[in-house]
UniProtKB/TrEMBL annotation, chain A:
Keywords: ATP-binding, Nucleotide-binding, Transport
Similarity remark: Belongs to the ABC transporter superfamily.
Signal peptide coordinates: none
Organism, scientific name: Halosaccharopolyspora lacisalsi
Gene Ontology MF terms in the entry: ABC-type quaternary ammonium compound transporting activity; ATP binding; ATP hydrolysis activity
Pfam family, any one: ABC_tran
Name of this protein: ABC-type quaternary amine transporter
Keyword Nucleotide-binding found: yes
The keyword ATP-binding is annotated on this UniProt entry: yes
EC number: 7.6.2.9
Length: 370, 238
């Protein structure tokens, strides 16, 4: 557990970066610090490993004031990941990851064995260990950065915009990977970003900071979207917060219906007679696209005769995916698939909206706050 | 040995070969091998002393980030100094002899090594230094494990340019009493033996090339592979 107790930071040039701020980061959770550039996120985070000492106030780690700890030793017990990864260019990937175990006095062999384990953990192939940082892509470097921070199995992890320098697809991968790792490892993570979507996706709790180092709101992501504390938070979380909040509504009550389907390779004789949209599946029952109502099939059905489908909704995930699947499909029918990607059924936007409505009503009548 | 006055290039080469072929020039304390070794010795010694002084200083200044202005100031000021004037001034203060001449060479070598080392440490990516600090390296560990290895390419570059300057200047320093190939050069000048001067100049150049080659090999040996790759990668990119 990390506790900031009225911490305040004024730099030598008079800039106040953090304003009398108190915040508790619960053990075993991901807490995200989010806010516009220059609002003091990095400053606040770096107080935890004494890279920056507060001008006043104190930081407690598991109940003890970190000022009583030797900085170098304190830091070895805290994983640290930064935006540009900060890998050592002169060391191989494996030796980069082995650095902290070596600082702890492990033999080179043990440290490397541990490092190899971690590379696997963060989803990197083993032979990558022999390469040098310059031979890696940005996304791979970030994974190595995470592996290096985890190598000594620190209970606390500080991450300062670790994924902001990679493209959106890789970023999403890295975020999923972090969530997966966190499920396994249960670290106390303090994560800095200026991307509210990233904060909402990753955080168990999100602290929104405002220019000048003020804490504007500290809440679970769902609450942040439901009840922004003030105008600043409202504008910061963005216009489509209502839609994004659907990420937090579970799939309970979703009941897919059956659409007409056809298989790739079938002939026009197999097209169902009803004049409606027809969903084409491949031989593993994975959706491939839509056939227009009343369309005829020339010979065997091939993929070029199909209209591209919308996004797919995986059973059991949040309602945001279900609504998006319905809205993005040309047929207006959101395709529901199982975990293996095989067709289950379809849902309409109307169905999802009714579900949302009925839940809202039941909450209001019970008088509970969502 | 009747080579006197200006002659055509082919004749000069013939005469240089003749000079070199004369066994008398290869014997004794004034012979080519002895003077060459002496020259080599003085160069390596003065650059060695300069390294001992300038590398720790450069590392300290680069590591702490304090005194960068000093490094730039010192190296600019010293580059502007006329080398021979410096050596002469030292001899005038300290008297004729090997030590003042060598001191001159050391002073000559220091700026290049100092600014090479300093630039090397400053060239280490700030994120890598930040990560080193953040993961709990002590200042010493950071210096040895991160800053020094990453500074090596520029550091050795500084030593190489210092070495070239010193090899050339050591020859001129014969005029204030330092032994070495400069003796042969000045000896030729004194009696108007241009073949001998040409041979001496050639040997000095060869020595410079040789020493630079040795340092280049050393550089290949000690510079971490990751840095070599990083450099070629950025050159490919540009
Ligand atoms: N060493 C320093 N000296 C003086 N002012 C500083 C220093 N470091 C940061 N600041 C100032 O303190 C404020 C907060 O900086 P900080 O780096 O914590 O912001 P941030 O929220 O991490 O921003 P970003 O999202 O751009 O990384 C800024 O106004 C910045 O200019
Ligand atoms: Mg920052």
């Amino acid at each position: 557990m990390i506790e900031f107790q009225s911490v305040h930071k004024q730099y030598g040039n008079g800039t106040v970066a953090v304003q009398d701020l108190s915040l508790t980061v619960e053990a075993g959770t991901i807490t995200v610090l989010v806010g516009p550039s220059g609002c003091g996120k990095t400053t606040l985070m770096r107080m935890v490993n004494r890279m920056i000492d507060p001008s006043s106030g104190s930081v407690l780690l598991d109940g003890t004031d970190i000022r009583e700890r030797d900085p170098a030793r304190l830091r070895r017990g805290i994983g640290y990941v930064i935006q540009q990864a900060g890998l050592f260019p002169h060391r191989t990937v494996l030796d980069n990851v082995a650095t902290v175990p070596r600082l702890f006095g492990n033999s080179r062999r043990d440290a490397r064995r541990r490092a190899a384990e971690l590379l696997e953990r963060v989803g990197l192939p083993n032979d990558l260990g022999k390469r040098y940082p310059v031979q890696l892509s940005g996304g791979q470097q970030q994974r190595v950065g995470v592996a290096r921070a985890l190598a000594a199995d620190p209970p606390v992890l500080l991450m300062d915009e670790p994924f902001s320098a990679v493209d959106p697809v890789v970023r999403a991968d890295l975020q999923d990977e972090l969530l997966r790792l966190q499920d396994e490892l249960g670290k106390t993570v303090l994560f800095v970003t200026h991307d509210i979507d990233e904060a909402i996706k990753l955080g168990d709790r999100v602290a929104v900071l405002r220019q000048g180092g003020y804490l504007a709101q500290y809440a679970a992501p769902d609450d942040l979207l439901a009840e922004p504390a003030d105008d600043f938070v409202t504008s910061f979380v963005g216009r489509d917060r209502g839609y994004r909040r659907l990420s937090f509504l579970d799939s309970q009550g979703v009941c897919p219906e059956q659409a007409d389907t056809i298989r790739i390779g079938d002939t026009s004789a197999d097209v169902p007679s009803r004049a409606g949209w027809v969903l084409a599946l491949d031989h593993e029952r994975r959706p491939r696209g839509w056939l227009l109502p009343d369309a005829t099939v020339d010979g065997q059905l091939t993929e070029n005769q199909l209209l591209a489908g919308g996004s797919l909704y995986t059973e059991g995930t949040s309602l945001r995916g279900a609504l998006d699947a319905a809205l993005s499909a040309p047929s207006g029918l959101g395709v529901v698939v199982d975990a293996d990607g095989a067709y289950v059924g379809v849902v309409t936007a109307r169905h999802v909206l009714d579900l949302i409505e009925s839940r809202r009503r039941s909450v209001t009548t019970e008088g509970a706050v969502p | 040995m009747d080579a006197r006055g200006r002659k055509g290039a082919p004749e000069l080469i013939v005469n240089m070969i003749a000079w070199l072929a004369d066994p008398a020039h290869w014997r004794g304390p004034e012979g080519v091998p002895a003077q060459m070794l002496l020259h080599l010795y003085y160069c390596v010694l003065s650059v060695g002393v300069a390294v001992v002084i300038a590398v720790p200083l450069g590392l300290y200044i680069g590591h702490t980030g304090r005194g960068g202005v000093f490094v730039v100031g010192v190296s600019n000021a010293m580059r502007a100094l006329p080398t021979l004037g410096l050596v002469t001034a030292l001899v005038m203060f300290l008297g004729l002899g090997v030590v003042p001449a060598l001191a001159g060479l050391v002073i000559l070598a220091v700026p290049a090594v100092l600014s090479g080392t300093h630039a090397g440490v400053r060239s280490v990516p700030t994120e890598a230094v930040d990560a080193a600090r953040g993961m709990g390296m002590t200042p010493w560990q950071r210096l040895w494990q991160v800053e020094l290895p990453n500074a090596l390419p520029l550091l050795i570059g500084g030593v190489r340019s210092a070495m070239l300057q010193v090899v050339a200047t050591a020859a001129v320093a014969a005029y204030v009493g330092l032994g070495g190939l400069g003796r042969i050069l000045l000896g030729g000048l004194a009696v108007g033996e241009y073949d001998q001067m040409a041979v001496a100049a050639l040997l000095i150049a060869l020595l410079a090339v040789f020493l630079d080659g040795v340092l280049a090999a050393l550089s290949r040996w000690v510079v971490p592979r990751g840095l070599v790759l990083a450099n070629t990668a950025t050159h490919d990119g540009s």
